[in-house]
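User: Show me an example of a complex going from sequences to structure tokens.

Assistant: Sure. Here are the input components:
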Amino acid sequence: MRHFLTTEDWTRPELQALLDAADDLRRQPVNDQLRGKTIALMFLNPSLRTRSSFEIGAFQLGAHAVVLEPGKAAWGIEFERGVVMDGDAEEHIAEVAGVLSRYCDAIALRAFPLFKDWSHDRQDPVIRALAEYASVPVINMETIVHPCQELALMRTIQDHLGAPDGRKFVLTWTWHPRPLNTAVANSALLIATKFGMDVTLLVPDDAYLLDEHFMDAAHYQAESSGGRFNITHNIEKAYTDADFVYAKSWGALPFYGRPEEEAQLRAPYRHFMVDGAKMALTRNARFSHCLPLRRNVKASDEVMDADYCVAIDEAENRLHVQKALMTALLNNQEQGEGTD
Amino acid sequence: MRHFLTTEDWTRPELQALLDAADDLRRQPVNDQLRGKTIALMFLNPSLRTRSSFEIGAFQLGAHAVVLEPGKAAWGIEFERGVVMDGDAEEHIAEVAGVLSRYCDAIALRAFPLFKDWSHDRQDPVIRALAEYASVPVINMETIVHPCQELALMRTIQDHLGAPDGRKFVLTWTWHPRPLNTAVANSALLIATKFGMDVTLLVPDDAYLLDEHFMDAAHYQAESSGGRFNITHNIEKAYTDADFVYAKSWGALPFYGRPEEEAQLRAPYRHFMVDGAKMALTRNARFSHCLPLRRNVKASDEVMDADYCVAIDEAENRLHVQKALMTALLNNQEQGEGTD
Amino acid sequence: MRHFLTTEDWTRPELQALLDAADDLRRQPVNDQLRGKTIALMFLNPSLRTRSSFEIGAFQLGAHAVVLEPGKAAWGIEFERGVVMDGDAEEHIAEVAGVLSRYCDAIALRAFPLFKDWSHDRQDPVIRALAEYASVPVINMETIVHPCQELALMRTIQDHLGAPDGRKFVLTWTWHPRPLNTAVANSALLIATKFGMDVTLLVPDDAYLLDEHFMDAAHYQAESSGGRFNITHNIEKAYTDADFVYAKSWGALPFYGRPEEEAQLRAPYRHFMVDGAKMALTRNARFSHCLPLRRNVKASDEVMDADYCVAIDEAENRLHVQKALMTALLNNQEQGEGTD
């Protein structure tokens, strides 16, 4: 049995096998490979694409996805060990994971960090607890990384650029009214460096560098894969000769949990928005974003409506890569004592 | 590819073909005509019948419906063009429509008017924006019209009265504690006049006349179809010799967005409730309502529990007509580049 | 047509037939016995296990479950007769039941008591109203009893102990920060006495005795089945020689609707928590709980993590017994005029 918590646990050839399977599945989308199987989708945060693509993907494979929203239509959940549970949570992850492992063939979880204490959140404790207690595969639908988005991004890069090795990939920070999760930024670095790309991280200030774990992983992976990893504050330098521009907003980690101070730091940098002038510096680059995207804040209407914008293709690829992932994880599974 | 935004875009023979298909489907409810297909149901407002009937209808045809509630379990959506999106909405309808068009074979939307500015709401801007950006059929699940309810109503009229031409159809306004959407009233006029009925609109005051677009359409359609369209404030005159009584409450458009003033205007008219005495004036008319209905406010218990009340039949017909609609729109569709 | 509102309406052999069918179904979980059938799951209160197990169970049988949450994503519902509905509720249970009976082959309802007036709530008025107006089977997903949990509990007892007759079953009250529903406690007494067990009810104070209806039923059923029914405040006496310990917290009925006073009464009794020392008094008893459970409040980590804890097995059995129940009720049904 294998979990899909982060691509750091998977090799490039293993990930490429999922991407190849996704390509097959989009040519033959409806089949019965997972007939009678079930997956629980547990959302601690909102979702449109993730929920739709998992639910539809399961259906197209003959399986069924159950959507759970603990704390809203279900009970609040405790994730720490050994707690005297006389607070808000009615239930411990040990029992939730135990029961869902009996009902379902896999459990997928979305659990954003709590934006209070990064030293706690950076351990990814919620999904780690789930994976520890579950006896079926656990899939990460975004915590402090977003590995399903990574697969969709790399499928999209290969669809549009062919082999990714040596192609210039720019991850640019953009302004946003609130400090957002770093997950997609962490993930973009992980997947682009693992696949041998020439990666540039563009941030307006060193405070927007990502957690050292992901910076180190990007350096190490670039070295192993024959790629490169550079950091810059220079917009022109970053965009010049780029093959693929990827935008994301995130909050500065040194100000984690102090949104007012972070807002002041962020205020001068609205001009990091992706626009036509910046895209004109590239080598006819494709542009993408994980969505949702605020138009004319993260990217201009001109960019979003251009032929080189492949954000909708990337979103579509979520469906195909997640079907490949479910097929790999659920068919790989031994028959348990439970429901199948 | 064709949308189903309003019955004004469809001819009487086209609508009758849907009603005939609905009749076939209720005799053979479970089949595989839409095997592997998917439809997104996007609700900006609550629903019981609409959601159940679409979700069950899709299932009975071998398809799957995904229920999305943007702003609750999903992201808030911006519907205007060219906006700098630094307010509440995290996402533009262009991307939502684009992505869902890749995941699904159709998108259905419920978006009630906002009760602030009728000159804006009467353009039906939200579903028009969705239809513009979607590359799959869009179905109206109630905006400022409710065309699925129209199909269910006309199916019910034909089930109970046979040919509708020349039969007297009364649409009566009723009191309600809040000013409600005019959609079902607009729709009742549209469908009854299109099918050649002798239509009477009963309102307590001219302030309760419907938007001129729908008043004009009713006059024009009645003329084209050989029907009639009359307006009255006289309860006795309206009910006398009626074949079909249809009740609905709605807010007075001149007071749109000013609910306190509208409440004062409305206050003297609680006696417009449908009761046994009024029904006794008819030619053994059937009574119906789109539901939900407040008993002893819009119609008395006596009326709701009478054999002549066919509101439950009409609700059941929602299932059959929507299955006919999905079958027509989804099978009509060319194979896209996306998921099927 | 038959409802499943309380096990008091079903004989022991009838219930045993459901338990035997559940055993068959867990060996062959995926089949097409209910192909094309639909069930509405109406939740007035949150749920994780109940929703997942019904939804997955329906899917594994070829059916589809629609999840409705009236008052949240659907309309508020009125359950009383003859009311002038000018308050909050937009719709009467008569219409909800009527419509859902046309769309679905069964309706399941969760409706916790309102914690205001026990003389009202003890009549179980909400599900009784639904059953009265529905023309398809109604299934109780927890009101003032929880008969699906009873089936899962008795399936688990038989899985671990074999024949239940004469085995010592202890239902122990436990502390909890809030006064909870008595449903599972009522149900545990009903099912254990019906199946001939030697039943002990352990409460810290006579105020925690259950409603006289259930106390009387337990006495009467124990007599009929050759079992026993005893009440004690003595922890040691209760646990000694027990074969099965079942824990639940509930509010004291004499303080129903007065949570502050009840909290004072409850305060001295945190030591009723199930722990290793208490379990050591038993005859190697199994321990279970219906979940959700607050660890180190209702039962210690030691108990929950022990091999003798079968709470996860009981939760799994929810799936199997509910599939048996749906199969029995839906296949038993005559073809209606409606959707199938």
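The lines above are the inputs; the final block is the predicted structure for all three components together. The mean pLDDT of chain B is 94.
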